[in-house]
Amino acid sequence: MAGNSQEYISHHLTNLTYGKLPAGYVRENEDGTTTELTEATWTFAHGGAEASAMGFNAVHVDSLGWSFGLGALIMFLFWRMAKKATTGVPSGFLNFVEMIVEFIDNTVKESFHGRSALVAPLALTIFTWVFMMNFMDLIPVDVLPTLAMAVGIDYMKVVPSTDVNVTLGMAIFVFALMIFYSIKIKGIGGFVAELTLQPFSAKNPVVQAIFIPVNFFLEIVALIAKPISLGLRLFGNMYAGEMIFILIALMFSAGIALGLMAGVLQWAWAVFHILVITLQAFIFMMLTIVYLSMAHEDH
Amino acid sequence: MNLNLTLIGQIITFGVFVWFCMKFVWPHLLTAMQEREKKIADGLDAANRAARDLELAQKEAADQLREAKEKAAEIIEQANKRANQIVDEAKDNARSEGERIVAAAQAEVEQEANRAKEALRKQVSELAVAGAAKILGKSVDASAHDELLDTLAKEL
């Protein structure tokens, strides 16, 4: 059982990876024999070991596929509603979409004091997309991987936001926007000044010169910490949630009594998780707005 | 847990979605919502204005009604007064006419009585003269005793 559960868990935590195996890598075949690759090959990884051997030259097909698919779905829905939106009486799903748009518009107006055509749509994209990606967590953990197995796909991790690549990717995009707007609004000089002339400053130029490296170190740490915390917060929350779902799912195979308890736990955790996924989507959006607002502030 | 090309892929995907949202989704929705908001605000304004107009019109109508009632009451009062006046006038006329008729009749009666008295007086004086003539045995010269006779007639 122990070995099985370990396998079960690690199977659930392995991405469907397509990448480049280096030349000379020894692959294990299913029948136990091994094949040595004579040259670097692009292929699907059979298991976590091969996936780590691929290094950076690999793509998590499932994460990227689900995240793109969900994003495209939500964008399509919103786009259709945007075309349907008129000054007349809104109805049905359009009401719901407008409710979200209004909520985000208000949030952005409250927290972001500059003028920007980007921030509000960015916030909308983040909120809806992250919510959709997190929402995949509420689908029982075995359903989609089992279906994938049935059509011959060995690994399927369906919650894109439990993939650190996905969350950090989004955080890095936000970081790039922060840098872009900092330089655009304050100029390179202003941005550098912001990084070097605070929090410590002095009238005496010599003392100021001593302060500059200290300031720069502090500010650069603070700056880098923003995207990393942004990405890792979402990743950590979703990963932990997913992990608990997997552990609960393990109990289903351990007899009727534990199975029933697992059912109750699964339900309770899912209900709680509805709060978590919404909250995490909101936090990601809110922090993005705040960071961009800080980038727009001219001292 | 490996960092790999997925990161780059996600950045690109994110960028594309944000661009799409910024270009095709957000402006349309927001414009429609803002326009609708304005429309609703205008509609509410118009409704308020109409309600105020209605109130004013009702007040005006009530005023006019009250005025009309007052005027009608006034007219009726005047008419009543006039009617009373006419009746009074008629009464006065009748009374004075009656008085006049009574006075005329009385005057006539008096005249008649005076005339009768005169005639009587004349006859008495004639009788007196005749009586006196008989007593004296000769005729009395009427013209010679005119003065005496008149005094006598007056004393009667």
Report what the structure shows:
Chain A: This is ATP synthase subunit a. Chain A: InterPro entries: ATP_syn_F0_a_bact/chloroplast, ATP_synth_F0_asu, ATP_synth_F0_asu_AS, F0_ATP_A_sf. The complex is a heterodimer of chains A (299) and B (156). With 299 residues, chain A is mostly helical. Chain A has nine helices and five strands. Chain A folds into two domains: 59 residues, no CATH class; 235 residues, no CATH class. In chain A, a hairpin with a 5-residue loop joins strand 2 and strand 3. Chain A is globular and about 75 Å long. The model of chain A has no long low-confidence stretch (mean pLDDT 86). Chain B has 156 residues and is mostly helical. Chain B has one domain. Helices cover 91% and strands 0% of the residues of chain B. Chain B is built from two helices and no strands. The longest helix of chain B is centred in the middle third of the chain and has 132 residues. Chains A and B meet through helix 2, strand 5, helix 3, helix 4 and helix 5 of A and helix 1 of B.
